[in-house]
Amino acid sequence: MRTLNKMNATELNHSTETFCLLDIGYSQIFNTCLLEVAVVLFLTVLIISGNLVVIFVFHCAPLLSHHTTSSFIQTMAYADFLVGVSCLIPSLSLLHHLEGVNEKLTCMVFSYMVCVLKSVSMASLACVSIDRYVAITRPLSYTALVTPCRLRTCIALIWLYSALIFLPSFFGWGKPGYHGDVFKWCSTWDTQPLFTAFIVAALYAPAAFTVCFTYAHIFRICRQHTRQISERRARFGPQDPEPGEQACTDKRYATVLFRITSVFYLLWLPYIIYFLLESAGIYHHAIVSFLTTWLAISNSFCNCLIYSLSNSAFRKGLKRLCLLCLQRSDTKKPLGDPPAPPRPACHV
Prior knowledge:
The chain is 72% helix and 1% strand. It has helices spanning 2-16, 34-60, 69-86, 88-94, 103-137, 142-145, 148-165, 184-187, 193-236, 245-279, 286-297, 299-310, 312-331, and strands spanning 26-27, 32-33. A two-stranded antiparallel ribbon has the order 1-2. Helix 2 runs antiparallel to helix 3, helix 2 (34-60) packs antiparallel against helix 4 and helix 10 (245-279) runs antiparallel to helix 12 (299-310).
């Protein structure tokens, strides 16, 4: 009887013990996975705060709205902000604030949300590269081709397309991707090779090909323009206005966007490689799954960091936002004694 009671107590302890994907960093005192909580909460705070700053700066700096690509950058900022908000789900789960919820439904909804939002970022980066490609290759017809109506339609299609790609995950097609597996049910949700191949063919491959093709042509054209300007200056001296200066400006702006795109794919490449290997049944490791997933999600903070460091107009907008905050804080200070009236001046 004592043996049976001990076995029941052991099973009860295992059933109530918090699920830790990494199997390390579990604290008996706090009854939580300290390492996973630290990583998830740290990234959540960074992503939410960083993208809130980007959103506010775009609303406070009219200079940033001069480029059409600012609409796609704002779309990415909103998507990354929502990634940070969705990361509150695993944070609350690790802190035992989601006890009693349906793990299967919560895991499926969380994975779907993060996949859709990152798909929006990936598609937006591809559209940004197309926009810059059209601006450089067809500068005279750019305003006629890229209209505000077409821009809004394109952004709406990005959200719709991203939502539809991962919708089959609710109908038994398989797991759309790894996102921490902070719920125990998530770790038992398998990926399916056909669904993975569908995601790669419908999203990852076209977006990567578009970015590589457009930026390769953009920098090749800008290099040709720069060489032509140098040859013209050597022959005729500096001219005013200098032909090709707009192309150089477009190259600088394209360089900023290329940095954002490069960091995006560098951070997401380990995740995509692991996703493909696990789907094919070649490799599976819980720690690698966790690290590659949250490395990819950390890109939601890197976007705003790169943009703030690389774009002078953004830095001016950030400075303006800080000045507005300081002015409002000064106006909220309690007023002291009224200033003494000025003394009458003596005129001789």
